[in-house]
Write a structure and sequence with these properties.
The protein has one domain. The C terminus is likely disordered. With 310 residues, it is mainly α. It is 79% helix and 0% strand. It is built from 14 helices and no strands. The two termini are 36 Å apart.
């Protein structure tokens, strides 16, 4: 019992740390392209070092899987890029709420990628989420907010894509090796984008000491350490408990944004009502999925008939 409590506490500390990722997008002065470039490089180097020290497996078993995972890394890079673009042009609060719409995209991506049955409950929750996004944006006339919503929704689509692809790949490879290869691929992609847009120069990439330490916190603590700890915690608490708890990240981010960035002064009541409903919808979706998994497990054990799952 005490062991479970300890694991739950550690998990929520990690999720609270993840809550800082959006906040850091505002606090770090460099532009989104350079910010993501620094994050993926620091994450790759530090994760590789941790895996070597801990003597954990980091090599992908097949060449085909290597190419597949490197491709997912491209999506990860674009996800972070659009996420931080949303934060830079708007607010951290708006960006994290837009990211919650990833649940809607998972509803149609998983049946295609993982070849599973379509869950109409996911589409219903998706419609609720979209309605709340409209509620949040109804009173917004700022071009920056609308652009932030656009970037945030693209980031959500990318998040749904790489999480769905990873769900397929984790059946064949270790989570640590997948993440390492993806960070390597993301580093190459961000370097290419910086060169393509002519921003791969000292002026754009120059950072001050405050940015340096914030980037180290983002890359090492929020990415590498958080990932490794989460993988270990999952062994004790289970994937469902961990995934359900991660839905607390938007709540932590909204609280941190209000305290650190004073963003509550820029947001109206529609935002908080819509945000609350979106977070609740994400939790409900997780519970529905878990209930269905249990029914499927019982069916496999011939405890239920196929009609019981309908």
């Amino acid at each position: 019992m005490q062991s479970d409590i300890k694991h739950h506490v550690v998990l929520h500390v990690i999720i609270f740390i993840w809550g800082f990722t959006a906040i850091l997008g505002k606090l770090i002065s460099v532009e989104a392209f350079a910010l993501v470039w620094y994050r993926v490089i620091i994450a790759f180097v530090s994760l590789f070092a941790f895996l070597l020290v801990l003597k954990k497996k980091w090599r992908i078993t097949s060449l085909k899987n290597s190419y597949y995972i490197l491709g997912i890394g491209v999506i990860v890079a674009l996800h972070w890029l659009f996420f931080y673009l949303a934060i830079k042009v708007s607010t951290a609060s708006l960006a994290i709420i837009c990211l919650s719409t990833a649940t809607l995209h998972v509803a149609w991506l998983e049946p295609i990628i993982l070849k599973r049955k379509v869950l109409y409950s996911e589409f219903l929750l998706g419609i609720i989420i979209v309605t709340d996004i409209l509620l949040i944006t109804a009173q917004s006339t700022e071009t920056s907010d609308l652009l932030g919503i656009f970037y945030g929704l693209i980031a959500a689509l990318m998040a749904a894509m790489f999480s769905t692809f990873n769900a397929k790949m984790v059946q064949e490879e270790t989570a640590s090796s997948i993440t390492l290869y993806e960070m390597f691929s993301a580093t190459l992609v961000m370097t290419a984008l910086l060169i393509l847009f002519g921003d791969f120069n000292a002026k754009v990439l120059t950072i001050n000491w405050q940015d340096f330490w914030l980037l180290m916190f983002l890359g090492v603590i929020c990415t590498s350490v958080a990932f490794l700890v989460t993988v270990e915690i999952t062994k004790f608490l289970g994937a469902f408990t961990v995934s359900l708890s991660i839905n607390m990240e938007p709540i932590y981010t909204l609280g941190l944004a209000a305290v650190i960035l004073q963003e509550h002064r820029e947001l109206n009541w529609q935002f908080y009502v819509g945000a609350t409903i979106i977070v609740l919808a994400v939790f409900v979706n997780a519970f529905i999925k878990q209930k269905r998994k249990r029914k499927l497990k019982k069916l496999a054990n011939k405890e239920l008939s196929p009609l019981d799952i309908a």
